[in-house]
Amino acid sequence: MRLSSIRVKLFSLIVGAFFCSTVAILLIADSELTEIIDTSKNAFYREKIDAIWNILHQHHERLKKTGLMDAYLPDFKSDTIKELKRSYYSQQHPAIYPFIVDTDGNVILHPVLLNNTAEAATRDFLKRFLATERGDFNLAFRGERKHYTFRRFPQWQWVIVYAVPLEIKYAEARKFHTLLLLIMTGVTLCVLLLFIPVIARFTKPIIRLTIAARAMAEGDLDQKIIIQGNDEISSLAQSFQDMRAAIRQTIYELELENGERKKAEAALAHEKEQLAVTLISIGDGVITTDISGRILLMNKVAEELTGWRGTEVIDHALEDVFCVINRQTGRPVKNMVDRIVTSGTMTSEERQEILVSKSGKEVTIAGNGAPIKDAEQNIIGVILVFRDISKQIKTEQELLKVRKLESIGVLAGGIAHDFNNILAIILGNINLSLMDAGLTDERIRKRLTIVEKTTLRAQRLTQQLLTFSKGGDPIKKVSSLENLIKEAAGFVLDGRKVACQFDIPQDLWPAKIDKGQMSQVIQNILMNGCEAMSEGGKIVLSCRNIFGEESENLRLGKGQKYVAISIADSGKGIPAADMDKIFDPYFSTKVDGNGLGLAICHSIVAKHDGYISVRSESDGGTIFTIYLPAHIPQAAPASTPSPIVSDTVQARVMIMDDEELVRDMVEIMLKEMGHTPFVAENGGEALELYKKNWEAGTPIDIVIMDLTIPGAMGGKEAVQELLAFNRNAKAIVCSGYSNDPVMADARGHGFRAAIVKPYTYQGLVEIIDKTLKES
């Protein structure tokens, strides 16, 4: 017989029921009997204690009547102890006895313990009786559990204790327990003997039903169940017969349905494969969910953007995977599915949000959502389509930045042009004042000289504005680099906590450069160095002459001469990761930087046919090196400046400028030089005046034309008409736009030379003399 059979279970049930009943009866009987015994026995033990207490009391009263309490008290106590020993220790059960201790814990009377010889453990035991006036408790002492009843006799400071072993106290209860257990066991065995036939009669048909059901489960539908009778078991057997017939019919119907289902599954698999191919081919991210927001499908692009695999997010909440933040508020976007399901329509416009991937990477996305409907137009889910527009946003931002820079550039160019006109007037009049023989006050002359230098410094500032605004070709002249480097350093480092050291050889080769643009390069690099040494430091500016083959730089041509300008700071250096990007436009590590400084430097040096390199180590400083082609003239330049006089014969010179003050100032300068001046406001007026003097037989020798005339003909157009009238006409272009292509290539546009506003008296003398000497 198996342990899991119904017979064993019924048998176990009956045995368990009787066992639980027996245990319950025993527990209840034990509780009640124990309470009865405790009540009766404890009262009996108290009577014993009270009897001894009365004996002590009688002895005490007798002594008290004699009036000799102090003299005879020890004798009375001794006689009392002897009397108690005779009364209780000779006839009592040896395990049941009274004993007396005093309130100090000393033994007065005990059959085993000696007087005043109790060890520490015994003293702790005796202290239990000193807590109250009287009482009782159970306690194990020296391996034996006993019941103790006690009462204090305060007159003699004694405590009377009656000790009874628990085994003796509850002996009758144990006898009753044993008898009751035997009776219940006998009753249980009798009941089991009576129930065995009944159980067998009840379980036999159930076992037959179980065997038949197991056969049906294994596919044997021919198994028959025949049980005679009208009881519930017979009805159950008939129900099994009916179920067997129904199962046969159901299996037949399922086989037909299974055939149809396989065809539908094949068609569905084909559609699913087509859908998967379509989703993979889509360049946008696609996520579909049910109406509760649980993810059903996610394509490859969505996996890449979210950082989750499609197989690991199925049945996950959309907001756990598709974490989107509002671009304007920075708050998480929630309940997307609920909004689409509630509206029941596709979102009206693409939303631009920030998607936070699994790894924490943020990308800007644009997308929309739409409900998914079944054949009955019931909403069964939502589809979200989105794409990464980070590059598009960045491109738009860059275009906006370029437009802003272009606008700023146009503004800067206009300001620089107008400012140069003003500087030209200031500088010209200062030059004329310094040439005035009547100016004898050296203090005023010194002050005018300072203003002259400041004006030239302002000219360099406008040159930087023009370089920023136009970025045009440089107007190169052979120049010494030493003065340019020292002036640029003085301009930047003045008032800063940075020391500067120069190492420039006396035989440094000159270079053909645009002094304004090259000064801007030096200043930008020096400013970066100062910002890298916010707490102070040192910058070393050194120059050297090199040949291309002497340099490790492969970009320098062999056999060519170069001037190398090195700018070394002691700052924190440039991180290795940024070294390849420092010359990129708009790249900056500064919070408020625009990333144009080094990009402009690179552009300027490249337009000078040179090269700029950088070397840096973290916490080791940075060294920028500029390589410029050297220009060694055939004859060494004069060591003393030329006198401010013209060695050319008097000439007829016309100045064309829209600024009246500029015309007046240049007219005075020309008269000081000994020339005959003519003035014109625009190109049309200049051509008319030129032709008039030509026809009169007194031709004008040189025409100085302003390049830009607002609202009228400027120098670029006027020179073409002038050359058409007289192909040998000599014209000089003049402009505040120093980096205009016409200024960079004056001869290519019909002019003999170019001069940049503001110019000095000496500069005007030199260019006129040079032009007049040309054939």
Description:
The chain has four domains: 6-174, Beta-Lactamase (2-Layer Sandwich); 282-388, Beta-Lactamase (2-Layer Sandwich), CATH 3.30.450.20; 392-444 and 644-775, Response regulator (Rossmann fold, 3-Layer(aba) Sandwich), CATH 3.40.50.2300; 471-629, 2-Layer Sandwich (Heat Shock Protein 90). The protein has 775 residues and is of the alpha+beta class. The chain is elongated. α13 packs antiparallel against α14 (597-607). 49% of the residues lie in helices and 19% in strands. The strands form five sheets. It has a six-stranded antiparallel beta sheet. The chain is built from 19 helices and 23 strands. The relative contact order is 0.05.
Here the CATH topology of the largest domain equals Rossmann fold
Number of helices: 19
The domain tally reads 4
Strand content: 15-25%
State mean pLDDT (0 to 100 scale). Answer: 79
**Silhouette:** elongated
Reported CATH architecture of the largest domain: 3-Layer(aba) Sandwich
What's the count of strands? Answer: 23
CATH domain class of the largest domain: Alpha Beta
Largest sheet: 6 strands, antiparallel
Q: Taking Cα atoms only, what radius of gyration do you get, to the nearest Å? A: 60 Å
Helix amount? 40-55%
- Which blocks of ≥5 consecutive residues have pLDDT under 50? 636-646
Q: What structural class do helix, strand and pairing data support?
A: alpha+beta
Through-space gap between termini: 136 Å
Spatial strand arrangement across the major sheet: 7-6-11-10-9-8
CATH H-level homologous superfamily name of the largest domain: Response regulator
